[in-house]
Amino acid sequence: MEMKRDRANFLSGVIIGAAIEVHRELGPGLLESAYEACLLYELKQKGVRVASQVPQPVVYKGIKLDCGYRLDLLVEDLVIVELKAVEILHPIHTAQLLTYLKLKNLWLGLLINYNVPVLKQGIKRLVNG
């Protein structure tokens, strides 16, 4: 368990570095999908295993139900990255990522809002439990 957390912490630094690179290149004002494609590219260039738009079922009474949830990015099956391009982050955005972390039984998630002048202002690190 501790090794997974160490790896997740390491990956969060790599993800944030790549996200900052994307923001430096593109700036604010684009659609979330553009940032997602560019961050996916950056992470793959760094040799990181990453998947985008990963289906996340809800388990209800032991049955997996597809309710349309999609993880923006799942990095090495350890870190969920939820991307936004909104004026301000709202509590519902945090709740969404925390729910994904619980459903996936993962420890670490990053909520990244690209619609900010300096990306550091738009990054929120969330821990499940």
Automatic annotation (TrEMBL):
It comes from Vasconcelosia minhoensis LEGE 07310. It comes from the Bacteria. This is GxxExxY protein. NCBIfam families: GxxExxY. InterPro entries: GxxExxY (IPR026350).
